[in-house]
Write a structure and sequence with these properties.
Structural class: alpha+beta
CATH class of the largest domain: Alpha Beta
CATH architecture of the largest domain: 4-Layer Sandwich
Strand content: 15-25%
CATH superfamily of the largest domain: Aminohydrolase, N-terminal nucleophile (Ntn) domain
Strand order of the largest sheet: 2-3-1-9-8-10
Helix content: 40-55%
Distance between the termini: 30 Å
Largest sheet: 6 strands, antiparallel
Length: about 625
C-alpha cells in the first residue's frame, strides 16, 4: 500500500515547485514508510510513498514504460497482475520488474484510459501521458483506495491519496463546505463526491478523471448490474458451488505477497470464512489477529480464539484499553475530515496489533453489505410487503400518525417510511440520522440549514437496476455506507499503522456474481447471509455460525460520562464551538444536560460534536 500525490499547472511555462511536492509527499509518510520517489516534467510533477509488498527490490515509483513516455504513481494492488503481465509479454511488451505497477504503464499503451476495465484489485493511481500532456486518474470499482483532487479552472489540478497532501501544497483555501458538514451530522461521515473543504473533491469509486488542455472529464466505468425478474435461475446447490469457487479464487489471489501475510479475525462469520479458506491454501499456520475489550459486552475474543484453534491457525489476541484522550487527536489527523464512527478505535488497535506480525492482512469486510447481514435489510422486505396494504391509505394520514406518536415508539419509523416514497424511505432508513431534520433545525443558527440530504441517495436507489427491495437496499449500502464509512475507516486506520488490508468479499467478480443471486439465497426465513453460512456450515459449530451479530462496538456512553466527561463538556459546551457561529449553544448545552442526567440517549450526538470541534481546532484554527 502506498500514497500518491501530484500537481499539474495548466500554464505549460509554469513549472511545479519541487519543494512543494516534497512537502506534500511527506504528509503521506505513514502510507509508505519504505521509500519515496518523484517525477518532474515542467508543469507536471508527481510523487510516491512506498510500502513494499510486491517486488520490494525493483518496484520503486513513479515508474515508466521503456521510452519514458508514460509514467505512473500507484496506490494499491492489482491481484490479476501475473495474468495481465503474461498477456502483455505475448504482445511484445518488455518488463524490467516483477511488480504489478509496471503492468499499468504497458496496459495503458494498449488500451488508454480504459485499462481500468481489465484490472482486478484495489487501486488509486495517476498516469501521465508525456506525448499528449494528459493526466489520467483512476479509482477502483468499490472504492477501497482513496483519491482526492482540487481543480482550479485556468490554474491547476492537484491530487493526493489524502486531503492533507493537497492542503500541504496550499493549492486551495480551507473554506468549510457547510453542505458536507450538515451531511456529517446525519451520517457520521461526509458522503458523496464532496469533501469537508469547498474546493476539494473525491474521485468517486469506479470512475476515471482525465485532465487535458486545462479541462477535466469524470467518467463512470463500472456499476453493479442486476438481472431481470424473468432470469433463468440455478438451483441452491449450483449457486453454492459457484459461490465457493469464486470466493476461493478471490482469497487465493489476495494471498500473493512478497512480505508476511495474515488475517483479521473478529469471531464473526465473514472473517471466519476468509480465514478458513486461507488456511486451506496455506501450507503453514495462518497468522490471525484479534482484539477485544475488558468490558464483556464488547468482547468477541472467546469466539475468535475458538475459530482460530478449530482451523489450526496461529492465534494472536490483544486485550486493549485504549487511551481515549490520545485516540481523539489521532483519529482527527488520520481522517482529515470529521469522522465519528467510533469503531475506528478498535480498527486502529487491530491494525497496530497485526502490524507487529505481518505487513498484509486479509479482512472480512463486505459480507454484510453484499449478503444482507444488517437488521435493516429485513425491514426493507417487510416494508415492501406492507406497502401493498398501505397503498390504499393516504400518505398524509400516515404522516400525521407518524408525527403524533412519541419519538422512540415501536413501529413509529416504519409508519414514517410508509408515508414516504420508497426511495425517500430507503435514504432515511439506511443511515444513522442521529441529528435528524427536526433536531438540526433547532441546532443551527442559520435557519436555511439543514440541507436536503436525501436527494443523492434517492438517485443512487433509483439508479439500481434490481427489481426487488432487498437488492436495491444492498446496492444502496455498497454505494454509500460501505464506501464512505467502512472502507474509509479501514484504509485510514490500517495506513496509520503502515498495514495493507485486503478484502476478498469485495472482489468485483464476487459482487457481480452475488448481484445475480436471487434475494432468497441472501436472506432466508430470518437467516442473514444465507449463502455464506451454507458454505461455512460444515466447518463451524452452530453456536458460532448462528450467533447474534456483534461487530466492533464501544462503550462510548461510559467514556463520555467518566474518563472523557470534563474534556467533552469543555469541548462541546465551551466557547470555542460557540465562537464558530454555527450552532445555538443553548440547544447543545441542553443536550449535554439531558445526556448526563440520563433523560436522553445523546451519547453519539455528543461524540459527533466532540469530533467536529476537535477537527476545527486541528484543521481550521491553525
Amino acid at each position: 500500500m502506498c500514497g500518491i500525490c501530484g500537481w499539474l499547472n495548466f500554464d505549460p511555462l509554469q513549472s511545479v515547485d519541487s519543494d512543494v511536492m516534497k512537502k506534500m509527499n511527506q504528509t503521506l509518510l505513514h502510507r509508505g514508510p519504505d521509500g519515496d520517489g518523484f517525477y518532474h516534467d515542467g508543469c507536471f510533477a508527481m510523487a510516491h510513498r512506498r510500502l513494499s509488498i510486491i517486488d520490494p527490490a525493483l518496484g520503486r515509483q513513479p515508474l515508466s514504460n521503456e521510452d519514458e513516455t508514460v509514467w505512473v504513481s500507484f496506490n494499491g494492488e492489482i491481484y490479476n497482475y501475473l495474468e495481465l503481465m503474461n498477456i502483455l509479454k505475448q504482445k511484445g511488451h518488455r518488463f524490467r520488474t516483477r511488480s504489478d505497477t509496471e503492468v499499468l504503464v504497458h496496459l495503458y499503451e494498449e488500451k488508454g484510459e480504459s485499462l481500468v476495465e481489465d484490472l482486478r484489485g484495489m487501486f488509486a493511481f495517476a498516469i501521465w501521458d508525456v506525448r499528449r500532456r494528459k493526466l489520467v486518474l483512476c479509482r477502483d470499482r468499490v472504492g477501497k483506495k482513496p483519491l482526492y483532487y482540487a481543480f482550479v479552472p485556468d490554474r491547476h489540478l492537484v491530487f493526493g491519496s489524502e486531503i492533507k497532501a493537497i492542503l500541504a501544497g496550499n493549492a486551495v483555501d480551507r473554506a468549510v463546505n457547510y453542505h458536507a458538514l450538515d451531511h456529517y451530522l446525519s451520517f457520521l461521515y461526509v458522503p458523496g463526491d464532496e469533501s469537508i473543504f469547498n474546493r476539494i473533491s473525491k474521485l468517486p469509486p469506479a470512475h476515471t478523471l482525465v485532465c487535458e488542455d486545462g479541462k477535466i472529464h469524470v467518467r463512470r466505468y463500472w456499476d453493479l448490474r442486476y438481472p431481470d425478474s424473468d432470469r433463468k435461475e440455478c438451483t441452491e446447490e449450483e449457486y453454492t458451488e459457484q459461490f465457493q469457487e469464486i470466493l476461493h479464487e478471490s482469497v487465493r489471489i489476495r494471498m500473493r505477497s512478497d512480505v508476511p501475510l495474515g488475517a483479521f479475525l473478529s469471531g464473526g462469520i465473514d472473517s471466519s470464512t476468509v480465514v478458513s479458506i486461507m488456511q486451506e491454501i496455506s501450507p503453514l499456520p495462518v497468522e490471525t489477529v484479534s482484539v477485544g475489550f475488558a468490558e464483556r459486552d464488547y468482547n468477541e475474543l472467546p469466539y475468535a480464539r475458538e475459530i482460530s484453534e478449530l482451523f489450526g491457525c496461529r492465534y494472536n489476541e490483544y486485550l486493549v484499553q485504549p487511551d481515549i484522550m490520545d485516540m481523539i487527536p489521532r483519529i482527527v489527523r488520520s481522517f482529515d475530515e470529521p469522522f465519528a464512527d467510533p469503531s475506528a478505535i478498535p480498527t486502529y488497535h487491530v491494525s497496530r496489533a497485526a502490524r507487529e506480525k505481518v505487513t498484509v492482512a486479509l479482512s472480512g469486510d463486505g459480507g454484510d453489505e453484499s449478503l444482507a447481514g444488517y437488521p435493516r435489510h429485513a425491514l426493507d422486505v417487510l416494508e415492501h410487503k406492507l406497502r401493498r396494504i398501505t397503498r390504499f391509505i393516504p400518505s398524509s394520514l400516515l404522516q400525521s400518525i407518524f408525527l403524533a406518536l412519541p419519538e422512540g415508539t415501536r413501529g413509529r419509523n416504519t409508519i414514517g417510511n410508509l408515508a414516504a416514497a420508497p426511495d425517500e424511505a430507503a435514504a432515511r432508513k439506511h443511515f444513522n440520522l442521529l441529528f435528524n431534520r427536526e433536531l438540526k433545525t433547532q441546532l443551527y443558527k442559520d435557519k436555511r440549514l439543514p440541507y436536503d440530504f436525501s436527494e443523492t441517495f434517492r438517485q443512487i436507489y433509483n439508479r439500481c437496476s434490481a427489481d426487488n427491495p432487498l437488492d436495491r437496499s444492498l446496492y444502496l449500502d455498497i454505494s454509500t455506507y460501505l464506501v464512505e464509512d467502512i472502507l474509509v475507516k479501514v484504509d485510514r486506520m490500517s495506513m496509520a499503522n503502515s498495514l495493507e488490508v485486503r478484502a476478498p468479499l469485495l472482489d468485483h467478480k464476487l459482487l457481480e456474481f452475488l448481484a445475480g443471486v436471487p434475494p432468497r439465497f441472501k436472506r432466508r426465513r430470518g437467516t442473514t447471509k444465507y449463502l455464506l453460512k451454507k458454505t461455512l456450515a460444515p466447518k463451524l459449530p452452530n453456536h458460532i455460525l448462528h450467533r447474534r451479530k456483534q461487530g466492533f462496538r464501544l462503550p462510548i456512553e461510559v467514556w463520555l460520562k467518566q474518563d472523557l466527561k470534563a474534556f467533552a463538556q469543555e469541548t462541546v459546551c465551551g466557547t470555542s464551538l460557540e465562537n464558530r457561529g454555527i450552532f445555538d449553544m443553548t440547544v447543545i448545552r441542553g443536550m449535554w444536560q439531558d445526556f448526563i442526567s440520563g433523560r436522553r440517549e445523546y451519547a453519539h450526538h455528543i461524540w459527533q460534536l466532540l469530533i467536529l470541534e476537535s477537527w476545527f481546532e486541528e484543521y481550521i484554527d491553525p
